[in-house]
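Schema walk-through. Below, the input block comes first and the output block second. Nothing else is stored per chain. Lengths vary across the set, and this one has 669 residues.
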Amino acid sequence: FFNYGESIGCTDSSAIEMDPQTRDGHFDAFATFANLTFQDGMPMKEKFNMCFLAENEMFLHDLAIQDLSGDLNPNENGVAGWILSDSPKMTAFLEEGTCFPMEGSCAIFCEGGCFRTMNYAINVAAEYDNLVLEATHADGRVTEFEGYFEAKTTIIQNVEVPDDYENFVYQRRKYFSPILPDGEYTLRFKKDGAIVWPEFAEETWESPPSCIPHVLDSSITLEVPTPKDEECANVINHGDAEEGTRNFWMHSGGGIEMYTPGYNSAFAFRSTRRKGTWQGPGQFLDTRCLTSGSQYEISAMVKLEDNNGVPQNCNPNQENINAFDICPRVSLRLRHLAGNKIGDPVDVSYAYPLATTVGPYNKDDWNMIYGVFTVTESIASADTVFFFIDRARPGVNIIIDDVKMVPTVQTCQSPIYNTDFETGDARFWGKVGTTTTDMFVPGYPNLPGASTEGFALRTFSRKEFWASMSQPLNTDCLEEGTAYSVSSNILLLDANGNIANCDTSLEYGAITVNVCPKMALKITTGNVEVDVDIADVTGPWNQGNWNSMNGIFTVTQEMLVADSVRLFWRKYEEGHDIVVDNVAVTSVEAQDPDKLMNNGDFSSGDTRHFKPDRGGVISIYAGGYDDDFALMMTGRDASYYGVRQNIDTNVLEEGVSYTASAKFKLFLP
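--- output ---
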């Protein structure tokens, strides 16, 4: 560089001047200088000048440029080094006497040293506006680095305003970029002097400098504090919206804004400008709380409106994500970083649904999203986990409040849940086949019209004989060879919603009318589905009233390795509906292989496990053989009418002889 500057009357010019404009405050123009030449006698401020940049209030004073040949060394001794912002954080870990002012340039030159930058991307929540990243050298020296975020703007009606889409979309991050010379360091996020954790921190290293030695992966320890109990007691931050701000909340597309009133409160959150079913409000979860095998209960209040504020309906039974009446659900977006260098691959995957909208749905009121899930290894190992509520049709705004995600433990006392429906909703329950479900009032033992409380679950408009309410069994609770007793109360309705009856002596097949339903398991493995009947109506049939179903099944290896094992009801006339209550699946002691009949002494006080064979009516007879009860068959219009029970073939042994015996009486009609 020559023939410029004050020597030719061109004042305030510099060979190298740092642009005062900065995108987010951080100096990220990583550059090196080498083999620079200047005409003799040129002052430093005409060689290099960063004063305009230093005067920018946004600038973080973290400039670092390597001078490989020492051409800008103010000592003019040719010793290589670094041009740095004249800031304590940039010199905190350098030896005294190695840094010299570059007069008039607002920078300093430090001989030797070898700086490298690492970047930590964190949550953009307003909660972390005053967060700092503290760096502590192994010898005890400490400094702090501020974070930075590029707040984008847009033009609306010729006015520059914050761009709510860009500033709150889930891809955005706040960054911390410590620039450190060689050494051993511990890094800690701090707010007001206290160590905190901003839900996650994605680490990316800049390319190493040409000098050595420099910091390596092994030189840096990012301290992740053990979470306090209250931090994982509800993993959702600001779920009740009562701060009146969007703190912690972002969106997966469209936008997010405050909404009033909330659910029994002043504020809620509303998505805006949704153009895809996957778009909705969300936030990043604290990855420390997501340990493999832990269980969480998710709940939220939700309602839907169009862009004009008109309430919109949805169908909790709808499963087609592109359907007009699809309801919201909870999903997770998982990011796994394959490395910590710029350009390393990133694996993105999704987990859904973790919770769904449960019926009944009232478009003019708040409704519930509910679910329980177990943290998988994929979730636990993710670098970031974004929780979001999506799946309403495009153009409909999702409004949420009172969002919670709290630890829970689903015990194995029963492999199904919400069996008496006294929550007043259909949480845990779905459906199979073409039908819908909704709550039925009152529940067992009362009949329609009774002035009493209580709930049951019913179907509507069944299109197939196997269409019904359904719930997957928690197969983690099942053990191969264990027997389970199943039961439920059942009420049948005809196509007009009136109470219907059925004949317990009939079997579904050639005859489809007036046949009683069966409780069954749908075992799904890949594309293969196997249906197994496990319970029948317990006779005699109680006309115009609730009846009982009972049965037993034994867990097989096929059930344990299946993708799902769903409990449902089938073999009942299509167009008629089913109401169920008090569903139970309970483990029983292993069946005695020397005693293959269930309820053979009728001590249950009913005919469970027994069925009429081809005709007749069975009922309980008071006064059994040496006990209280026996079974009686009436209406035998043919000699082959009798009583039967299916034997569980899992307990039969090949080559073993069995003895059959029973006590009986005969009566004339």
